[in-house]
Recover the amino acids of this structure.
């Protein structure tokens, strides 16, 4: 979360003497990080206060006029189309070299001395939207910014005249520190880090007029778990209108647009104290009653954004006696919202459950600045001071009077967190000997209450930190960061560095990815969540899959139990750009287990496709499998013809078995299965149980010495039935004779002259002996055995 912080505004709460640059550097070292510094007057360079001396008609344009402008020591003519120009008026004049947004739109353009419709024009008289000040000085179309009420000296730079000598910091606040996402929270940080005294005293709740009749209002908490505290107060005679300039300036510095004084008060309190607020029109609340309850299924409410929302059962709402008037922690309803005609109001200051607000905002796709704060977890103890501040500002800016007691409905009495703290343990964890007195001073400066009793202290956590301080170690971290990590001594490590402990499964996972990338495969990383439609295409039964209770969308409703659908979806989306390719994904799949957590099982899926329709991709993935098994040192793997199913082609697939257990399968995907994804070409794939593969993997290497005696090589070609398998042929010949050392297929072809359903296979055969050089007669004898086995097992016709 990022917060825009006005340095001038911050100085109202803490006494700071540092330059903006010094402040940003110190704060960033020990607290929230300042990412950027925005000097407020920088965009107004070369724009000065001018006075209109005379207004003359333009000779060549009816809508333009020529203005004689006194710029302080010089008078220049400027062509201007402002409809509200008047003699004696103070205006903002952009001199040549200044940059403005033309009609308030687009990128800034540089002003030059030029001619407009034939008349000389020195600079430009600006409208507020052209210099980024429309929020402070709103005006009608074609009107220039009228600065006469400022009584500024002619020729004074505009930034100086408007006292825009402020600097705004863009501060990153980590999500565990919502207490620092406001000006007072930032002031507490600055006070502790810079040792600067806090000057903020807090608000005072205005009192109702003596003898005035109070207006009735009741609050009922029906869901105390989701709303541990709800406070409200009624105020009457509120005059709704524009906010004063100082309020507009402060809101603008934080990036918030001014709307009216009532709405501005709620935004101001949120920025100042970090507590979201809401204001209701009291007269629109039915029964003068507020009920904090869970919505009934199907209830509807029109929100302040103008849209109607249908609520779900369990979503927390603020209701009156008849209907919901706000979605708790998210947004108020339009029907009960304050308008220009509102006179009696109700301020709401409450604490809502973070998870409830986050879930509701996401389900409704309705987010606000308030919901973002509530989602981080707020303290129940900030509501009181926020309500007092809102009432104080309403009395000051709207003339409102307190018309009820401050109602405080809460689930339980607040019990502050208390943790033990050992200074000696803290010094050991930090690694530097920080005096106990300094440790105590840091904790106290941050708002902690310290009870020191010898070596063991008791530290009470301030209410605004009760969501992120969970124990002694968090207190140690507070001491360390405020002391300054940059102040910790730099020491070179001594002794032997410990060896990294490697997870075997991760080591083999990394090796598999490196090998596949080296072999020309692109790694895919797809979501673990899939849609019901993709599950159906993937031949998955959703009733057997894990379903997410609150999915971000229908696309992420189920947790996949296989990788096939995700990969084929990617291939389908890229098939026009990649007519051939190879890819893989090594990720977890999720398998439900009865009475236990789901099984997270790693799976490896490899795919290959090309422009060719001769089945070569099946052989390509088969080669990848064999190479992978060899690199992993897996021995005894057996390839068995697959029977096929809805996913795999019945005649072009196989399974891989090791020791009787199935490691996976490979082959060509079934054409009908591919058509579900809109894929028309043939695609081959490999699916492996990677957990099993990693368990079988071995680093052991086996060495075979180079033969002492030369090997004899012979080639053999023969014709067999088309359905004859290479694996079966190798198995038949493997034990023909001990002298047959190697069998390698090098040619396969089919032609009509061979006969119907026939194919020709050609093999390299290698022979050898460990104690002698073989004679030709010995090799011929083994070749005769090979031929006999081929004829016996496959009715092979030996080719000459």
């Amino acid at each position: 979360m990022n917060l825009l912080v006005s340095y001038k505004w911050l100085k109202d709460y803490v006494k700071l003497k540092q330059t903006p640059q010094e402040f940003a550097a110190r704060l960033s070292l020990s607290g929230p990080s300042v990412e950027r510094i925005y000097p407020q007057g920088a965009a107004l360079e070369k724009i000065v206060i001018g006075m209109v001396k005379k207004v003359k008609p333009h000779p060549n344009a009816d809508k333009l006029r020529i203005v004689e402008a006194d710029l302080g020591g010089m008078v220049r003519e400027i062509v201007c189309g402002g409809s509200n120009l008047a003699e004696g008026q103070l205006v903002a004049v952009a001199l040549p070299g200044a940059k403005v947004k033309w009609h308030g739109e687009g990128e800034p353009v540089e002003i030059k001395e030029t001619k407009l419709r034939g008349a000389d024009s020195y600079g430009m008289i600006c409208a507020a939207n052209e210099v980024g000040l429309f929020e402070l000085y709103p005006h009608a179309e074609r009107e220039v910014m009228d600065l006469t009420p400022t009584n500024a000296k002619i020729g004074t730079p505009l930034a100086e005249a408007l006292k825009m000598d402020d600097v705004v910091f863009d501060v990153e606040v980590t999500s565990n520190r919502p207490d620092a996402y406001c000006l007072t929270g930032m002031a507490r940080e600055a006070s502790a880090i810079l040792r600067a005294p806090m000057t903020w005293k807090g608000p005072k709740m205005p009192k109702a007029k003596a003898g005035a009749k109070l207006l009735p209002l009741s609050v009922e908490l029906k869901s105390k778990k989701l709303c541990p505290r709800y406070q409200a107060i009624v105020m009457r005679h509120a005059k709704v209108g524009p906010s004063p300039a100082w309020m507009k300036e402060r809101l603008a510095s934080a990036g918030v647009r001014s709307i009216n004084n009532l709405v501005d008060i709620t935004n101001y309190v949120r920025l100042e104290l970090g507590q979201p607020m809401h204001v209701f029109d009291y007269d629109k609340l039915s029964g003068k009653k507020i009920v904090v309850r869970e919505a009934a299924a199907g209830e509807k409410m029109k929100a302040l954004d103008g849209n109607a929302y249908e609520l779900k059962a369990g979503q927390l709402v603020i209701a009156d006696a008849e209907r919901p008037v706000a979605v708790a922690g998210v947004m108020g309803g339009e029907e009960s919202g304050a308008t220009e005609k509102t006179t009696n109001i109700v301020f709401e200051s409450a604490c809502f459950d973070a998870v409830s607000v986050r879930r509701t905002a996401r389900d409704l796709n309705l987010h606000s600045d308030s919901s973002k704060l509530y989602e981080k977890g707020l303290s129940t103890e900030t509501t009181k001071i926020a309500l007092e501040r809102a009432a104080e500002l309403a009395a000051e800016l709207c003339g409102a009077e307190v018309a009820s007691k401050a109602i405080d409905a809460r689930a339980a009495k607040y019990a502050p967190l208390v943790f033990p703290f050992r200074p000696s343990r803290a010094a050991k964890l930090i690694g530097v000997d920080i005096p106990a007195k300094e440790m105590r001073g840091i904790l106290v400066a941050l708002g902690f209450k310290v009870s020191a009793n010898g070596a063991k202290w008791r530290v009470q956590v301030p209410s605004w930190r009760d969501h992120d301080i969970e124990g002694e170690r968090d207190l140690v971290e507070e001491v360390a960061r405020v002391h300054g990590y940059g102040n910790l001594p730099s020491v070179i490590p001594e002794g032997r560095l410990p060896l990294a402990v490697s997870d075997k499964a991760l080591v083999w996972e990394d090796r598999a990815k490196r090998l596949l990338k080296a072999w020309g495969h692109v790694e895919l990383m797809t979501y673990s969540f899939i849609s019901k439609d993709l599950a159906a295409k993937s031949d998955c039964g959703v009733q057997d899959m894990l379903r997410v209770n609150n999915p971000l969308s229908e696309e992420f409703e189920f947790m996949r139990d296989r990788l096939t659908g995700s990969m084929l979806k990617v291939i389908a989306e890229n098939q026009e750009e990649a007519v051939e390719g190879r890819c893989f994904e090594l990720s977890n799949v999720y398998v439900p287990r009865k009475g236990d957590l789901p099984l997270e099982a790693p799976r490896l899926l490899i795919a290959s496709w090309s422009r060719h329709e001769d089945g070569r991709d099946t052989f390509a993935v088969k080669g990848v499998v064999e190479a992978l098994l060899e690199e992993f040192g897996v021995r005894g793997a057996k390839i068995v013809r697959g029977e096929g199913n809805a996913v795999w082609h019945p005649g072009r697939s196989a399974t891989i078995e090791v020791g009787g257990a199935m490691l996976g399968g490979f082959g060509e995907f079934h054409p009908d299965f591919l058509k579900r994804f809109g894929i028309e070409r043939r695609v081959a794939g490999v699916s492996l149980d990677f957990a099993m593969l990693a368990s079988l993997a071995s680093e052991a290497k086996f060495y075979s010495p180079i033969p002492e005696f030369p090997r004899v090589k012979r080639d053999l070609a023969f014709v067999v039935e088309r359905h004859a398998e290479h694996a079966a042929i190798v198995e038949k010949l493997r034990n023909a004779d001990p002298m047959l050392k190697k069998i390698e297929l090098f040619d396969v072809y089919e032609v009509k002259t061979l006969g119907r359903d026939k194919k020709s296979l050609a093999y390299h055969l290698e022979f050898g002996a460990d104690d002698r050089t073989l004679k030709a007669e010995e090799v011929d004898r083994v070749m005769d055995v090979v031929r006999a086995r081929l004829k016996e097992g496959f009715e092979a016709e030996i080719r000459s």
About this structure: DSSP finds 20 helices and 41 strands in the chain.
